[in-house]
Design brief:
two-stranded antiparallel ribbon; Hypothetical Cytosolic Protein, Chain: A; alpha+beta; three-stranded antiparallel sheet; YlxR family protein; YlxR; YlxR-like_sf; 95 residues; single chain
């Protein structure tokens, strides 16, 4: 049987290539709303972030998402919180 190709994406925070399943997608839609996309299928300009708390916390300090999406900190603080929540949700094993 032919082995399936694993889709790879580049993290905008660490510049590492990782499998898409190990990333969280952050989206900016046409209305200018920025949010973490748990499904990975929302419309809009997307960027991928590694599911690593250390990387996300360093990015928050250096305001990496603010630079990438050209937005203010007040808009993106809830996005950082949502990314961290999604990381914790994926870390907890399903029963």
């Amino acid at each position: 049987m032919k082995q399936r190709k694993i889709p790879m994406r580049k993290c905008i925070l660490s510049n590492e290539m990782k499998p898409k399943q190990e990333m969280v997608r952050v989206v900016k839609n046409k209305e200018g709303e920025i949010f973490a996309d748990a499904t990975g299928k929302q419309n809009g300009r997307g960027a991928y972030v590694s599911m690593d708390l250390e990387i996300v916390n360093k990015a928050r300090e250096k305001k990496k998402l603010e630079q990438y999406f050209e937005a203010d900190t007040e808009t993106l603080n809830p996005v950082y919180d949502e990314i961290i929540r999604l990381i914790y949700r994926k870390m907890i094993p399903k029963r």
